[in-house]
Amino acid sequence: MIIGGSHLFHAASLWSLTVATRIVDMVFYSSVPENNEIVHELKAEFRDGIVVPRDQVEDYIEEADCVLIGPGMLRIESSKFKMQSAKLQLKVQSLQEINSL
User: Fold this and answer.
1) Distance CA 70, CA 81 (A)
2) For position 96, what pLDDT does the model report?
3) Can you tell me the distance from the alpha carbon of 99 to that of 21, in angstroms, rounded to the nearest whole number?
4) Cα–Cα dist 16/80, whole Å
């Protein structure tokens, strides 16, 4: 299962999906609606996958052997860069926060 992508970043989750479909027999993919639509349009290339709406992710996680979370997701609070001591501070998000992006 791949959970990734955002309204800002599209390619990272789609690249992950491309690689995963060449390695495993079934890939569950969940992203923001516009990325899910791109995958639906490219269904011929991603035959071995199911696009999962974010509100159904938890059900599919239970069925997955492996879960990749994050490629292309916004990982910082309020989607803005915050610098502290010249380091980027990342915020760990809950599934509910991820679904709201």
Assistant:
1) 17
2) 67
3) 24
4) 24
DSSP three-state, residue 79:
helix
Kindly list the domain boundaries of the chain, sorted by start residue.
2-74
Q: Rounded to an integer, what distance in angstroms lies between the CA atom of residue 100 and that of residue 55?
A: 10
Percentage, residues of the chain above pLDDT 70:
73
CA separation for the pair 99, 90 (Å, rounded): 17
CB contact at 8 A, 100 and 5: no
The confidence band for 66, taking pLDDT boundaries of 50, 70 and 90, is very high
* Spatial distance between the Cα atoms of 51 and 9, rounded to a whole number of angstroms: 18
Q: What is the DSSP letter of 90?
A: P
pLDDT per position as a tens digit, 30-62:
999 999 999 988 887 777 889 999 889 999 999
CA 26, distance to chain mean position in Å, is: 16
